[in-house]
């Protein structure tokens, strides 16, 4: 049975050096072995945390090499608020699962299979997951991806994840502060600044 | 007298090809000739507007070569809201003057003349112009400049301008929506998104 499992991966088998129990390493029960392996592959010092460069490498096995800007945004959105710029197994599993959903959305709305989606496909994709973002807001965000050539802006999966995370993330934060769906949200100064700054991605 | 002016720049002399009146090109009365020349030097097609790469070049004559990320943030903050990613003479003059003020602040608070300022100097610099930013907010923003080495973060003038513009800009937007200084600001969804997105700088 152990042999069968190793070959066919019907159950996760404990990666070398990590013992038998995934839960003890902080992964949620039921985490797919590929997720655990991707994490452990880059967590070489067995600290239980990975930084931005390591996350970039860990995700590249299943997705693609994301820009460090997108990687940093993902870390800011998924990390424990009290941690520095790093994520542990639980956050990594949540992030992996979230990216899988965004990949599915991207493929569904990339109707011409160009590997890129435009403003209208982005709007439809967000509408499909319950976010009706006004055209003016989409235009404002997408204008940041203009290359100065004046052509139509198209987003690859990396930029799509970045845009999607920004729009969904900010909208969710707004809704938290508008529990009665009045269309108006009220923030204290600290809450406002602490909420916006994680979306500002700086990297030199 | 014309010769004297050319040498000593006691009065602005009309740059070649632009005629006698600066105001007709949209510069505010009293704009220094260096500002006008810097703009005209890069506005080669005489369109009256300059884009990000041109702004980067125009500012480098007096300040430094800013990163395109900072340049784009500056354009977003200074441009006419209805324009695409470009600025005209009036906005350029305002931006130039603003950068001069930030340069003065930077030099005043860079006490050890290292060309870099740290978290505490940034806090003092912002306090000096009337912005008492909580340490937790500063720490959150400055953590974005960590290089992963775990060392103390120091900002050069480019990053200082970026941080300062973000903190001052967001605080000003908050205050606009808190006219009674209650400590609470209320936003509609569109106002909230339109306000935050310009601070998110994307550039590939």
Automatic annotation (TrEMBL), chains A, B:
It comes from Carya illinoinensis (Pecan). Pfam families: EF-hand_5, EF-hand_6. Residues 30-65, 97-132 form the EF-hand domain. PROSITE patterns: EF_HAND_1 (PS00018), EF_HAND_2 (PS50222). Keywords: Calcium. This is EF-hand domain-containing protein. Transmembrane segments: none annotated. The lineage of its organism: Eukaryota, Viridiplantae, Streptophyta, Embryophyta, Tracheophyta. PANTHER family: CALCIUM-BINDING PROTEIN CML48-RELATED. SMART domains: EFh. One of its GO terms (molecular function) is calcium ion binding. Signal peptide: none annotated.
